[in-house]
User: Which sequence fits this backbone?
C-alpha cells in the first residue's frame, strides 16, 4: 500500500519535503518509521528515545495525532498521509 510522508523542520533535511513509501497491508506507524530509519541513520536519533517516540515529536496520520490513537501500533491504510514535525518550543 502507498503511504505519503510529509516532513517538516529537521525531518525535512533528512527525508525531503514529501515522499511516498510502499508498505505491506496491515503495517503500523512503527513499521513505517523503522523503514524510514533503515535508510537514514540520523533519523532514529531525532525520532526515538529508547523504544518510544520522543515527547517533542508529533506524528499525524491524516490530521490525527498518533498519541490519541494507538501510538506506534496505529495501523496505516492505503493513501494515508503521515506528517512528521517537531513540537514548537519557545516563546
Assistant:
Amino acid at each position: 500500500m502507498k503511504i505519503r510522508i510529509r516532513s517538516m523542520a529537521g525531518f525535512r533535511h533528512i527525508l525531503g519535503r514529501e515522499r511516498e513509501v510502499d508498505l505491506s497491508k496491515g503495517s503500523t506507524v512503527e513499521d513505517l518509521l523503522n523503514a524510514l530509519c533503515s535508510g537514514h541513520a540520523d533519523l532514529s536519533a531525532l525520532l526515538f528515545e529508547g523504544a518510544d517516540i520522543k515527547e517533542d515529536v508529533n506524528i499525524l496520520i491524516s490530521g490525527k495525532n498518533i498519541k490519541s490513537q494507538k501510538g506506534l501500533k496505529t495501523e496505516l491504510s492505503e493513501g494515508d498521509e503521515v506528517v512528521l514535525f517537531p513540537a514548537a518550543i519557545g516563546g
